Amino acid sequence: MAKKFDVATVLERETPFTIDNWYNRVEQELDLATVPLSRADRCAHLPEMFKDLVGRLRNPLPLGTHALTSAAAHNHGCLRRDQGYSAAMMVEESRMLQVSIFQTLQLQVEDTEAGVLLLYVMAIANEVDSQLAQAMSSYITEASIDDKPIEVKTVVAETAA
After folding, report:
1. How many domains in the chain?
2. Whole-model pTM above 0.70?
């Protein structure tokens, strides 16, 4: 019989490993690397985010409930905007964080069935977030097109004399 797997404790204990994993992914992503940030600046929001996540895991809300308000998340969004991130870049950064969290958990799972299930959960979350990032990118592109002035062509009808 496999022992109980405490996700909150694993994430709390493995936060530095997960942040390292995430940072390495972000540094290899060309779009995100276009915003030059030091490691400290790029990772500054993560310790507080992990505290919020562990707290929610230890005090779960019903599935589908929005997370409690997070000052750290609000500050992170404002900071990333000031740093030059697009909305799509923030989604991609978040997707990479989920992948890093799931990978950390997968490395800690001892029960084979739980490990296989986790692989499917990871694939689903990764795909959903990847599609969200693509949709956000298209949305932003279309929004910028919508903001451009509409070119009006005047057609002059020639009249037969």
Report:
1. 1
2. yes
Query: Residue 56 domain-assigned?
Result: yes
Show the domain range for 48.
Answer: 7-61+68-146
Core vs surface per residue 95-123: b (16+ CB within 10 A) or e: bbbbbbbbbbbeebbeeeeeeeebeeebe
DSSP letters, 88-151, are HHHHHHHHHHHHHHHHHHHHH--SHHHHHHHHHHHHHHHHHHHHHHHHHHHHHHHHHHHTSPPP
- Pick the more confident residue, 142 or 89: 89
Is 97 domain-assigned?
yes
| pLDDT above 80: residue 16 | yes
